[in-house]
Predict the 3D structure of the following.
Amino acid sequence: MTPLTPETQTRILEFVDSLRDEILACSRHLHANPELSGQEFKSAAHLADIARRHGFDVEMGVGGLATAFAAHHPATATPGPRFAYLAEYDALPVVGHGCGHNLIGTAGTYAAIALAHAAASLPGEVLLFGTPEEETIGGKIVMLDAGLFDEVDAAMMVHPGNDTEIAYTTSACLCPVIEFHGKSAHVASGAWKGINALDAMVQLFVSLDITRKQMPPTVRIPGIITHGGAMANMVPDYTRAEFSLRAKDKEEAEWAMERLLDCARAAALATGARMEWHPTGNPYHDMRPDPRLAAFFERHWLALGGSQPLDYVKPHGSIDIANLSHRFPCLHAAFSITDATHFGVHTHEFAAAANSPRAEDELIRVIKTMALTGAEVLNNGLDAAGDHSTHA
Ligand SMILES: [Zn+2]
């Protein structure tokens, strides 16, 4: 493979350093103005304005999502790989940027800008996507289904966390709602005329607990009953439960989903109630990090003095870039902004950490690493990562 020239590397590193104040101002601005999923109008506009100022063409409201955007840098449009950076910027109720998406939005945007700055000496094209609503519907999945990533050859994003984890993996997730329809009757004077939808629901949870014993440890099927009946003196004619099914991968999730539905069907049969179910939200696949992107990232991250990545795989929740990783090479790298062990993301403490001097130093380092990772892909394509593919 052709190594990046020292000139290209220096051009990226010096450019990011020259923009330090502007970059930190962007992260602080997003942090000070947290907007919930689907309402990130000011945050999306802020990042889009910055991208425009640095030469990108930006289209707002893509994929039917009002706060999504797609951007490309026309001056970089030469034959070769099309490399995309993903920017998230939604916040949470109560804890604001308790997931640190102010850092993610800033990192994705400025990594694209820094790579575009060096792209005159590289083939390929630099793309930037504003991907909203990560905390709720999984905006990237909507954008994927809308065909927005059809021309992308590889994509990456970063996420702040307690640990540095470069080849970050996540569980697949399905969120079904299960309902039982019975028949109401007075519990004392005519219980035998009713069909008890709560009995069906209780039976479902009991059967599920039994079934779990023969499930792999990677499967989790927590559930809550959101409707258990109307009055204690009436046979419940309707019950409803929500589940958050997690599994190692898409295939295991689909298998576990069938087991859950078998339990529900059996409960309906046992009680005479009628079962209905439907999925909610988008199914999240398992994250499949591209080992070549991970190798490029790790090499530059460590060379820039970045913190050592974990040498074991931690369990994680689910993320929407995972669905993209089933279609083209992707990387979602976590970078440490705190050594704390008593709190994690989605807390007030993490919101404070996401706006700390340490996070800001790491932000500059991670933007440089992302830009250099993209430069490697433009320079060599992914098939040339070869010797450096040490991650699996
Ligand atoms: Zn997050």
